[in-house]
Design brief:
The protein is mainly α. It folds into 2 domains: 301 residues, no CATH class; 130 residues. It is 75% helix and 2% strand.
């Protein structure tokens, strides 16, 4: 009989409980499903938020870039307006110089017109050296010697260097070579090779395009030789140029990856050095081509001496004054910002590469480097580029060999690491030795694991000893003794088989490890051989580059039929 107060569970009650549990399970399942749905919705919302966040960030970047570009355009307009407002009249004087030469060449200008030009220039353009220089030129053309001399003195007071160079070119144009030489000497004597302005490029153009006669060329080349010697005594000037050429040569190197060298990438710890060597090796031809292209390029048209001198005069008078350069720098920098879509960092990097073209004055070494590295801004003649390249060959050679020093040291060996094994090869010729060493290493590494456990182990020894003792104790019971002998044989035989089979599996596994390691090694060696041959081919180009650079001779790029090339810049003379 049931105890009073006890709960009696009937089958019906169990059914009810079971049904309720089932409903509860169903409800839990629905809740779980709903939770999954909520999780899914939360995930979708999170993804949507992330997408919106990315879109907002991109939008902000675009807005920022657009704002920077708009500001840059506005800055260009303001700088250009300021340039035109403050110095626009300079261009008016510059254009009149060219106009007077062209008009007088064909006798298409009256004396009164020249006089009127002269008077108007003085009124409109105070403080600018070219204005009194133009007045002096006009007075000279109209035989007004007094005005010519007074205006000339004023021009020299404002800028003696440029005035001297201008009148050197004017007298060359007029065929008055002796007077031109005096002006040229005056200009050259005023130059400081450690702080020389960009108009020196005009002199280099005059030397290389044949505008100067033999005597004038000799004066210029002697002076250049003196400048080179003076700067050579101060190594810092050279170091700056080597650094600039190193940076330029590095810009010609296309960084490589390990697309064709997967095994080298995985099984060597020298990936950075190898990528550097590979990048230089595959860029050697590009470096050689860039240097050769300067020498191969020809003047597109043949022009008269008068036209060449006119071009030099144009270069001189349109060379911006120091006070104009700051505005020009601002315009150039903002144009780069626009080209880079508002990326100020990239624009600044590009501007740094061209900043030398906007320097007021720098050393003569830098001017030579500018001729080639900033030629798009400076616009020298191609012969002047060749001339400057030849004068710069020592810096270029040092810069190039700094970049390619891995070839100079012949350090093309590669260390291979396969697990705990290490090997070294240069061209794969020691392949057999490497494979043998790898096999020995793996054998030694697995020897203890394979042979450390004997085929006849301690368990078998103990079993055998115990069995022999039992045989001795039961030798009068042949049947039992035979049973013990059979047990020993079976036990030892089975364990021997197990140990032997285990050893055989380990040996097989060791052979598989060796096979895999050999596969890796052979493929790595194959890639090393490919790498070696790439380097060997590039070494030939490397030698060609050194030969090309050292073979440059500036005298080959002086265009003058009457010139005796008897000046050796650097202090030596040859007839």
């Amino acid at each position: 009989m049931a105890r009073e107060g006890a709960v009696v569970l009937s089958a019906a009650n169990l059914d009810i409980i079971e049904n309720n549990l089932g409903q509860l399970a169903k409800n839990v399942g629905e809740v779980s499903t709903n939770v999954d749905v909520v999780d899914d919705k939360v995930n979708r919302v999170t993804d949507s938020v992330k997408t919106i966040e990315d879109e907002v960030k991109n939008f902000m970047v675009e807005i920022r870039g657009s704002t920077i570009v708009s500001n840059a355009k506005q800055s260009i307009m303001l700088s250009q307006d300021e340039l035109n407002k403050r110095y626009g009249h300079y261009d008016n004087v510059r254009r009149k110089i060219n106009g007077i030469f062209q008009a007088t060449d064909i006798n298409a200008i009256k004396k009164s017109t020249i006089e009127n030009i002269s008077e108007q220039i003085i009124v409109d353009t105070p403080n600018y050296w070219l204005a009194p220089a133009l007045v002096s030129l006009c007075a000279w053309l109209t035989d007004n010697k007094d005005l010519a001399n007074r205006a000339l003195k004023e021009a020299m007071t404002r800028d003696d260097e440029k005035t001297s160079l201008l009148f050197c070119l004017i007298h060359l144009r007029a065929g008055r070579n002796e007077t031109a030489l005096r002006w040229l000497n005056r200009y050259l004597e005023m130059q400081d090779p450690s702080a020389i302005e960009g108009k020196i490029i005009t002199i280099l153009d005059a030397i290389t395009n044949g505008s100067l006669n033999r005597d004038a060329q000799a004066i210029c080349l002697n002076k250049i030789s003196d400048w080179m010697q003076e700067l050579k005594a101060q190594p810092a000037y050279r170091e700056i140029q080597v650094e600039r050429w190193t940076k330029y040569i590095n810009s010609l190197i296309e960084e490589q990856n390990f697309a064709d060298f997967d095994f080298i990438k995985k099984y060597t710890k020298e990936s950075e050095r190898i990528v550097t060597i590979l990048s230089v090796a595959k860029s050697e031809q590009n470096i050689l081509s860039e240097l050769r292209n300067v020498i191969k390029e020809e003047q597109k048209t043949s022009v008269s001496t008068i036209s060449q001198i006119d071009k030099l005069i144009n270069m001189l008078v349109f060379n911006y004054e120091n006070e104009e350069l700051e505005l020009k720098r601002d315009i150039a920098k903002n144009r780069l910002i626009i080209e880079e879509n508002g990326d100020v960092n990239k624009a600044n990097e590009r501007f740094e590469e061209t900043e030398f073209a906007f320097q007021k004055a720098t050393d003569f070494y830098s001017q030579l480097t500018n001729v080639n590295l900033e030629y798009k801004n400076i616009k020298p003649t191609i012969n002047t580029r060749k001339f400057a390249l030849a004068l710069s060959k020592d810096w270029i050679d040092e810069a190039y060999n700094n970049v390619s020093k891995n070839f100079e040291s012949n350090n093309l060996s590669i260390n291979i690491d396969i697990d705990s094994w290490h090997g070294t090869t240069t061209n794969g010729q020691n392949e057999k030795e490497l494979i043998e060493d790898l096999d020995r290493h793996i054998d030694n590494e697995h020897y203890q694991d394979i042979y450390g456990k004997k085929l006849f182990d301690i368990k078998m020894l103990i079993a055998t000893i115990v069995g022999l003792i039992l045989i001795v104790l039961t030798w009068k019971q042949p049947i039992f003794m035979i049973f013990i002998i059979l047990a020993i044989i079976i036990f030892d035989g089975y364990n021997f088989y197990v140990n032997y089979n285990e050893r055989r599996i380990k040996i097989k596994r060791c052979e598989e490890i060796k096979s895999d390691a050999r596969y890796i090694l052979l493929n790595t060696i194959a890639e090393v051989v490919d790498f070696y041959f790439i380097c060997q081919e590039s070494r030939k180009i490397h030698d060609q580059i050194n030969t090309f650079i050292n073979g440059l001779d500036y005298r080959n790029y002086i265009n003058s039929e009457n010139s005796q090339r008897n000046i050796e810049i650097g202090g030596k003379y040859e007839s």
